[in-house]
Every structure is written in structure tokens, then in C-alpha cells.
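Known limitations

Files may contain more than one protein. Parsers should not assume a single record per file. Below, a two-record file is shown to illustrate correct handling: read the sequence, read the C-alpha cell line, then continue until end of file.
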Amino acid sequence: LEDGLAEAIDDGRIGPRDDPKVRSKILSEEFKWDKDLAKKIWCFGPETLGPNMVVDMCKGVQYLNEIKDSVVAGFQWASKEGPLAEENMRGICFEVCDVVLHTDAIHRGGGQIIPTARRVIYASQLLAKPRLLEPVYMVKIQAPEGALGGIYSVLNQKRGHVFEEMQRPGTPLYNIKAYLPVVESFGFSSQLRAATSGQAFPQCVFDHWDMMSSDPLEPGSQASELVANIRKRKGLKEQMTPLSEFEDKL
């Protein structure tokens, strides 16, 4: 999805209960969507409200309305448990471009369509160079000038970075704001106190999601190791299901 669109869905500015005309106006003016395309959004997910969507791009496909609910159900399932580590997807738009359906209605039931839609969504995500998003804290720290070196040292070790440093008027204290990946925050407070002789006091608040630059599908990369650790923690096979498992052989 375009920059800022996932956040707009999270904030409730765009959602499934909006008037289609109002929603298409926001999407076309702020996110440069085609107005007709904006009216063809089938659903949001996961749980009907999440920052992912399915858009109907088909033209002249028979029986499409019959399978719409089943495709939506498959999408809700897939977006709740993604192919990398069975975590929620975020910021993805799936376009239904073409569908070939069996003429016999008995072969168009939910039992056939829901798992098929899920596999199609998994395969399309794996082909689209997926990336992991990691949650990031904003850390507020108060400390005297003599402790700043220790603070910067600990933040660098933890992949954090300072984006604001201000001295409080009339005091020897500094207010520091920094970003810190949540996965690196374990033991952060104790390390910070040790490095500053107990002079620094951090407060952590969730701020945003940050895209990891490494490829989770590339063996040995930081993202692939993180995926393996998450899968291990959940009791899944450490190796994610390969793309070939989702491709039908005709």
C-alpha cells in the first residue's frame, strides 16, 4: 500500500463502514488511487478492519459474486496468519485480476474456494519480495550531561538512534528522545543504568512499525534468522513453507 495508507486505516479515517464515495474521494485525492478502483474494494483485513485489502480488478468474470464471500474468508485467514511466521500482514493490497471457475456450482463452494484463496494470497506475497516489519519504541530519557556518552553507547549496541536532544532550561539535565526496536529492548533499562551509574531513567512507548532491510527469504540474513526464531517459539517448523508448495501443477 502507499505510504501513510496503512496508518490511515489504523486511525479509522478509511475503513469498511465508510461511504464508498467518501472513501474513494480520500483514496484518489490523498493516495492517488483511481476513483473507480477505490469503489471496488472487497474487504479489509485481518478481522475486517486491518491495514490490508482485496480489490476486484476483474472484468466480465462469470459467477464472481458467488465466490466473493469465500475469497474474503480466505483473505481474512491468510492476513491473520501470514506465510513467513504466521504473523499479521500489514500494508498489502491484493488485486483479484482474473478468475476461472467451474461451471458446476457444487465445485464453487466455500470448501474449495477458501483454502484456494488462502494459498493464492500466500503465493502472491512470497513472489512480491516480502519484508518483515518490526515494532519500534520511542524512548524518552532524562540524564545529566556526564551520562550522555553511556546512553549513546548503549543505544548503538541495541540498534537504537537518538533523534532529539535538548537541555532542560535552568537544570543540568538533558531530555533525549530515541527510537529503539522492541526486540532489542529486553535488558535495555538495566544496561542503561549500569552504563550511566544509575543516572538515566528511560520511558518506552510504542511509536511505529519499521521495515527491516534484509530479505526474510534469503538464508542467513538477519530477517530470516528472526523468522526462524519466531517459528521456533510458536512450535512451527523452522523452515517456512516454500513457494512451490502453493503453486498448482496443471
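...continuing to the second record:
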Amino acid sequence: MHRLVGDKEQKENHTKSIVYAAVCIALSFALSYIRFFKLPQGGSITLVSLLPLMIYSYMFGIRKGILAGFIYGVLQAIQDPWIIHPVQFLLDYPIAFAMIGLSGIFKKYFTKYPILAFILGGILAGVLRYSSHVISGIFAFSSFAGEGYSAVAWGFLYNSFALVDIAIAIIAGSAMFANKAFIKQLKMQ
């Protein structure tokens, strides 16, 4: 009997995580259309488009967060494609956004300080996303480097938009994580 109850609870949690993933991916996708700045060879600074994915990762863990980020990355490639090579596609879209799924990695280490866990996870996720874009930039976009810049320097400079984008999401998310009612709601999930 216990096994049946456990299976039902697992199934309900699995269903809940799928529904939340769909909602968070859709919300992130919708928010990605609200752009503060768009770069000529792809990339933009948005209004907290990464925040729903970051919260999802915090709520359901990094495995599910990485998968949600991967799916979101594929949607981004459909929304506004700038694809010149298959490896570049993987680095700039599914892999880069899958890194956002690591936002929840510190949740179990800072249980008493969820805001710290969120900030550190967001920083790690943002740096890894940025790194993926930089590698892609060096590999595939070196011919677009600005005058006087090496491919490496241009890759770091051009893709710095990703750091601004994650910083906006971390600041907005920190305000949410500073709210006790929000934390209480997260714990109920």
C-alpha cells in the first residue's frame, strides 16, 4: 500500500513539474520579446526573460532546470535565428540556455539563506551561459570582430550582453527572494 501512495505522489510531483516547466518556458519566451537592446549578430538584453527559468530550476532542481533551459534555447533559435554553423547553433542556443538551469544548484547548500542560493546560482548560470556564447563567438563569428579586436577579445566584448541580461534577472529575482511570502510559497511547492 505504501508503494502505491508513493507512486501516486511521485506522479503528481512529476506532472506538476512538467506543467510548471511549460508555464515558465512560455513566460520566459514571452518576456524575451521585451527587449531593451538588440545586437546585430544576435543577442539581446531583455526584461527578466531568464527569471522564470531560474525560479523553475530553484523549485524543481537542476536536472529539470537544464532540460527546461535546453527547450527554451531551441525556441530562441526559432524565434530569432542567427545560425551559421551547427556547433555555433548548439553553443548559442540549447547549451547556453541549458546553463540557466543550473540556477538552483546551491539551494540545498544554503537552505537558511535562499536569496544567497539564488544569487550564487544565478551568477554561476550566467557566467556559464556567457562562456558558451564567447566560445561560439570565437569559433564562428571571428570575421565579425570589430576593427582592432582579436577574435577572442571581440568574443568577450560582444557577448557581454549576456552578463547584463542575467544581472537584471538576478536583481529582480533577489527582490522576490527577499519577500518572506514568496519564500513560503516556494516551500509549499
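Parsers that stop after the first record will miss the second one. For reference, the second record is described as follows. The mean pLDDT is 92.
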